[in-house]
Amino acid sequence: MEEKIIYYGTLLELYGELLTDKQYSAIDKYYNMDLSLSEIAQEDKITRQAVRDNIKKAEEKLEFFESKLKLYKNFKKEDNIVSKLERNIINLAAKITTLSIDKYEKEKLDNTLKEIIKNVDSLKKI
């Protein structure tokens, strides 16, 4: 269920403005605010079934937008690449400390590594 929450929460962030106000409100309260159907129905003064219908329609629309635009899929792909880069950097940093090279060369490698880390961090913010 947690994966579903993250998935729809992210789709909502990407495509939420394309939903109707009622759909956006219902799916936001359900996935992001963790309210039950009954709680949303009571808060919005509508039936539980109406809430369920709004959420279902919103899910369908979000999935349709994703099937056409693939922003979430590309985001996940890029996130996986950044994670692999981070692991490789950590491994490289560990290997650098074991190298038998002079202090100057080690310092150059450290500085290069810091620059790479800075670039990877900037990728994470995009």
**How helical, in percent, are the residues?**
over 70%
Taking all Cα atoms into account, the compactness measure Rg is 22 Å
Q: Quote the beta fraction.
A: under 5%
Write the CATH architecture name of the largest domain. Orthogonal Bundle
Give the oligomer, counting copies of the same chain as homo and different chains as hetero: single chain
Considering the protein shown, what is the CATH homologous superfamily of the largest domain? Winged helix-like DNA-binding domain superfamily/Winged helix DNA-binding domain
Q: Could you tell me the CATH topology label of the largest domain.
A: Arc Repressor Mutant, subunit A
Topology order in helix (H) and strand (E) letters: HHHHHH
Q: Can you tell me the residue ranges where pLDDT is under 50 for at least 5 consecutive residues? A: none
Number of domains: 2
* Class from secondary-structure proportions: mainly alpha
Q: Describe the largest sheet.
A: none
Summarize the structure.
This protein is an all-alpha fold. 84% of the residues lie in helices and 0% in strands.
Note down, in words, how this protein is organized.
By secondary structure, the protein is an all-alpha fold. The chain has two domains: 2-69, Winged helix-like DNA-binding domain superfamily/Winged helix DNA-binding domain (Arc Repressor Mutant, subunit A), CATH 1.10.10.10; 74-124. 84% of the residues lie in helices and 0% in strands. The chain contains six helices and no strands. The radius of gyration is 22 Å and the shape is elongated. The mean pLDDT is 92.
